[in-house]
Design goal:
By secondary structure, the chain is an alpha+beta fold. 19% of the residues lie in helices and 40% in strands. The protein has four helices and eleven strands, in the order E-H-E-E-H-E-E-E-E-H-E-H-E-E-E. It has helices at 9-12, 61-85, 128-132, 155-158, and strands at residues 3-7, 32-40, 48-55, 90-94, 100-102, 104-108, 115-123, 143-151, 160-171, 178-182, 187-195. Strands 1, 2, 3, 4, 5, 6, 7, 8, 9, 10 and 11 form an eleven-stranded antiparallel β-sheet that branches. The longest helix has 25 residues, at 61-85. The radius of gyration is 16 Å and the shape is globular. The termini are far apart.
Length: 196
């Protein structure tokens, strides 16, 4: 099922970036592991799994700039190609899977006191069946994105997040708004039972 998630074009690049003026110098040096539950929405609301996000490092301003340039030049496909070339910054895996590498991980300025906001974007692994059917629509949705909001006051119950397992970015030529097209419904993240 395809969904459109619109947002302002000027703000949209924040999905995989943050303000240039924000320094990444205050990021903790140690790796971070986030374990939580994830549940599908709408037609997938009966699906429930655990997810593990391992962060080994954060993306640099130079990497951010290269992604913005790739997106400006070739849209979602350019972003996909640039992400594929980037070194791994960590790994994400759903229960029962080997998971896949995270290519862009950004720690954002706190949106409110006590909130740690992390955004992650990566090239989505394309299944063998999708390769065999090269014309399949799912091949266009070759990105995955995650946003995590960790609440330091009550990590387990108040932290939230969202997973977009298969998406692409498209700018509307008339409105200049960026739309995130999702092939699957977003998944919500909750019950943060392990954060270290």
């Amino acid at each position: 099922m395809k969904n459109m998630i619109p947002c302002c074009a000027a703000v949209a690049v924040l999905l995989f970036a943050c303000c240039l003026s924000f320094s990444q110098g205050n990021i903790p040096a140690q790796p971070k592991v986030i374990e939580c539950s994830t549940q599908g929405t709408s037609t997938q609301s009966d699906k429930l799994q655990s997810i593990t996000i391992r962060i080994n490092g954060y993306s640099t301003d130079e990497e951010r700039t290269s992604l913005i340039k790739a997106y400006d030049e070739k849209g979602s496909e350019g972003l996909y190609s640039a992400l594929k070339k980037m070194p791994s910054k960590g790994r994400v895996s759903l229960s029962g899977t080997t998971g896949f590498d995270l290519k862009f991980v950004r720690l954002l300025p706190e949106s409110s006191k006590g909130i740690l906001k992390i955004r992650l974007v990566t090239d989505r692994p394309i299944a063998a069946a999708e390769h065999l059917k090269a014309s399949t629509r799912t091949m266009d949705y070759n990105l995955a994105a995650i946003e995590v909001n960790l609440d330091s006051a009550n990590v387990q119950d108040k932290s939230t997040g969202i997973l977009l397992p298969a998406c692409e970015f498209v700018i509307d030529k008339t409105t200049r708004e960026l739309n995130i097209k999702t092939y699957q419904n977003p998944w919500k993240l909750f019950n943060f039972f392990g954060v270290k």
